Amino acid sequence: MKAICFEQAGEPSRVLLLKEIEKPEPGAGEVRLKIIGSPINPADEMFIKGQYRLKPVFPEVAGLEGAGIIDAVGENVDLHVGVRASFFAKRVWAEYVVVPASDLFLLPQNLPDEKAVQSFLNPVTSWGLLEEVGVKENDWLLLTAGNSSVSRIVAQISAKRGVKVILVVRNSENSGELKSLGAREVIDSSTEEISKRVLEITGGKGVNGILDSVGGKTGTELFRSVAVDARIVVYGILSRETAEFHNSVFLYKNVTMKGFGVRGCLESRTSEQKDRMLASLAEVISRREFRLDVSAWYSLGEYREALEAYDKDGRHGKIVFRPEQ
Measured between alpha carbons, how far is 105 from 102 in angstroms, rounded to an integer? Predict the structure, then answer.
């Protein structure tokens, strides 16, 4: 089969190669899926660079999320050929992948491909983040990296729950679109002081929850924007700089701060809890008005063009690999 491979960590444009490798065979408890599509996520870039919590084992195949159709099953698997599912697994930028059956997110058969291929990593992350931050109806929730897929998903789910969302962006060009997804306010950090604008928006009270994937100077600004009993959940490291805070922020306002990883989120749940979460997500994602946009589809052989498109500013939606059918 064809696969996008790498034999050393580094910049994707430098280390990735398209190769012919052996098609994998499922073992006990595993299934093999013919890939429908696999998006390029920030986690993929970090994985290829050797900076993600999952480490490559060389020679490695790139890609950590996708959707496919089961075409072979191993022993002790209660699933059949033809079932559509999405997954968070290694070795996905290929024509076929083997995944433990217990790690699959079974999809409605009528779910459009553009939603199916990105229905696991960011939606599960968004759902878990909202559980962790614990905001309620009429609470204010602030997210950094406001143009990201996670922020867009959180904004849509939060709007349905009556949570008031503030998105922080570095460029306000997409403000109108972000508000159409459910954001109440959009703050441009390149021209506005985050903490000042937050206090203006919230009538001086601050936000009840923060979901931060940046850190650094932006993270430092966020500590000045919290309400009493606020919760801060950190789930990314887009900035390599250190965020700074004074203990008084936590002491006087009773603020809670914790980290979040999607794999830990899933592993901390029982099978029943995970099934309920995925069933709820499937219902939300299946709604016609719920958006998971794709910017462009590329074949595996067009990986260089796909990487260039991924790096372009102002992109709307995911860049997705679609193996030739």
Answer: 9
CA–CA separation, 178 and 186 (whole Å): 8
DSSP labels, 73-115: E-TT----TT-EEEEE-SS-SBSEEEEEGGG-EE--TT--HHH
* pLDDT tens column, 215-249: 999 999 999 999 999 999 999 988 889 999 889 98
Residue 142 pLDDT level (bands cut at 50, 70, 90): very high
Sign of the C-alpha dihedral, residues 39, 42, 43, 44? Answer: positive
Tell me 129's DSSP state. H
Please say whether the beta carbons of 29 and 75 come within 8 A: yes
Q: Which two tokens stand for residue 201?
A: 């928006």
* CA neighbours closer than 13 Å in the CB half-sphere of residue 97: 32
The CA distance from 128 to 122, in Å, is 10
pTM for the predicted model, two decimal places = 0.92
Q: Is the peptide bond before 24 cis (omega within 30 degrees of 0)?
A: no
pLDDT score at 325: 65
Which residues lie below 8 Å from residue 201, measured CB to CB, with a gap of 6+?
Answer: 140, 166, 184, 185
Q: Give the residue carrying structure tokens 């709307």.
A: 316
3-state SS of 192-223 is CCHHHHHHHHCCCCCEEEEEECCCHHHHHHHH
Residue 57 neighbours by CB distance under 10 Å: 8
Question: What domains sit in the chain, N to C, each tagged with a CATH number?
Answer: 2-119+292-321 (3.90.180.10), 122-264 (3.40.50.720)
d(CA 209, CA 193): 18
pLDDT score, position 67? 98
